[in-house]
Amino acid sequence: MSQFHAQSAQAVMFFDGNRLTREMLYTEFEAILDGFVPVVDLASQTAQVVYLQLTPGLAVEAAVFFTLAFDAKGMADRRWNIPLEQLAENSAHGPDLGAGPIRLACASQCCIAWHQQQLWDPNMEPKANHFTLIKKSIQRNRLGLVAVRPQTTAALDKTLAGGSAEVGALRQELETRLEAEFRNRLAQKIKEQRLHINTLKGQHNLALDRVKLEYQRRFETLRQELSGSIRELEGEQAKSLKLKGLVDGQADKIKGMREYFELKVTDAKSVGQLQLDELKQHYQLELEARVESEASALNEQLQMREVELMYRNTQLSSLQEEVTRLQSDKQDLLQNSGNQMLSRLSQQGLNFVTFQAGIGHITVPADEVAAFTESPDAYVANRCGVSEQHYAAWSAHYRSPTCHALVAGGEHCGDRVERIERPSDFHLGEADRCQLHRQSPSQLMRAVPL
Ligand SMILES: [Zn+2]
Q: What is the 418 CA–ligand 1 centroid distance (Å)?
């Protein structure tokens, strides 16, 4: 194949996922690389690109799957410097796209390790296979490439037409070549499958990396949230501690104030008690002084009264003496003058008679007239043979013969009783009681205070 290499064509294809978006000749691609032509629709993107080397018969013989970044204006990254031809020449085999196994450079299969990051892996799934897309596109030949029929086939035809004599040897050779071809094909298939496995591994690794990254990110977020929560908790704890300290301080202050006021109340109580005691004492002293002064004043008055009384007594006794003296004087006078007169009258036949109610007429001898005039009641009582008080009680009964018993309300009964005509027949407590109020002698004794 190397004899065709000089004439081999080069093409470049752009993919967007599993979609072929652009195909061009390598010379056109160089114009993009050199910044002559911007690709506006890829601005600020990284494109997935495939570089292809083609046989003269227009079959793919080498492919490099690489990436190319574009700036905001759609210009290709100037730092891009992947040696496409070198990779295409030196890479290991890939699938057969019509002219035997291609040489393939991709992320899973790269002969220059430091370029691996700039390569990508084709999709080899049956539904969306990049190789199939490439093969179909080349067959459609929109780029207008010119195919050259290989001369090996023509040489073989000429040999076959040479003569039947060599048919046996030719058959032998053909069989050998077919066998070799078969072995090659088998080996090729195995390689393809290995490549497929490698690309799948790469995809899985990428997916795994994405998942790892995602988890790393989520882990980091949660860690930050957790540390934020811890910080908040610590802040709250510190705040709580501070508040607790504040509360303790307040409690201490309140306790101190309470003690102070209790002390004050105790003081006030003791002071009050002291004042009360003082007042009591003062009052006591005042009271005693007053009582003393009053008592002394009263004593003075009393002494004055006693002196007065003594004076009165003296006066009274002197007056009594005078009265006695005057009475005896009067008696003497009566005796001396009246009696003489009365004796004379009596001798001349004149009698002195007095009438007393209930007693009748009493003759008074001349020498007793003085005694009669002195006290007629006493004289008459004496003549009747009763005491003066008995006579007075009888006299009251005679004038008004009623019951003298005391009844409820402190009044006398007042019922009429039989009149006793003579004082000597009158019995106090019996004669002056109605039938209802007459009592036994023992009761009479109590009832009548004589
Ligand atoms: Zn009576």
A: 11
